[in-house]
Amino acid sequence: MSTAQTARAAAALVLAAAALAGCGSEDGSGKAADARRGPSATPPARAVQDAYGRTVAAGTAKLAVSSKVVAEGQALTAHGSGVADLKRGASRIELTTQGTTVEQRVVDGVVYQKPSGGQRGAVPHGKTWLRIDLGRLARQGSAGQSRVSDPAEPVRYLKDAGAGQVTRVGAQTLDGTPTTHYRVTVPLSALTRGDAGQARELRRQLGRSSLPVDVWLDGRGRMRQESVRLTLHPLEGRTPGQGSSRVTSTTVLRFSGFGTDARITAPPAGDTADITDRMTKSGGTTATS
Predict the structure, then answer these.
(1) What is the pLDDT of residue 30?
(2) Taking the domains of the chain in order of start, what are their residue ranges?
(3) CA distance 222 to 258
(4) How far is CA 108 from the centre of its chain?
(5) 8 A C-beta contact, residue 82 and residue 93
(6) Per-residue model confidence as pLDDT tens digits over 55-91
(7) What is the dihedral of CA 117, 120, 121, 126, to 10 degrees?
(8) Percent of the chain clearing pLDDT 90 (strictly above)
(9) Average pLDDT of the residues of the chain
(10) Quick one: CATH architecture of 3-282?
């Protein structure tokens, strides 16, 4: 894998981690209302199942994301911070990789990216923002869609974690906040929402039928951190010259400052360039990569 390909992989992973904050509330009531017991006093599977609702019920939060991709001896890191409206499924974050910063917003299932510096010329038609419709990518069955959404999708399925899929690792303090660390095994079939073809492709790339996800919950059962580690084995023939190159990645998302002010809006439609179809054809890479 070339440096450019490694950069594209990192961009996709960071995009996915930031999109995590845009998972939104599917059932904003229910278990989230019961915060009388902290996660350490709750059976592991129940604590993880409840975490989604309890986190969304907080309304808003500050977020920080970091990603590291290693391929053919080359390492690329990326990081960012911003805010999320957890109930609306919206986020605003500044992402930095290799000295380049991109402002990114996730609103109503659409990702908007505003490149800075020398990358601005990558936005078509003289526009300021790139527009990526994640829902449309999914409907088109894009191979790139799975890369965009892999690290984000497990959070949505924590609610369905079974007793045999969750292990309590132990207590840990994160940034001064006491938390409980859990390890969750998420079946690939859950990530692909029943799409057998995508499940098979992920299984071939990962060499396994499930994805390990680590989560840290605070005393009120809210998610404070999620970590996803992947080892991808690119499919032979999918990308010329890539062969059997292996890519390892670690993506970490942290929530803090629950209840913070988070006003997030989409950029003006006239100032955006939609590259969803281009991403479908190019395998899920952004125009700035």
Answers:
(1) 40
(2) 3-282
(3) 9
(4) 15
(5) yes
(6) 888 999 999 999 998 888 888 898 999 998 888 888 8
(7) -140
(8) 31
(9) 77
(10) Clam (2.50)
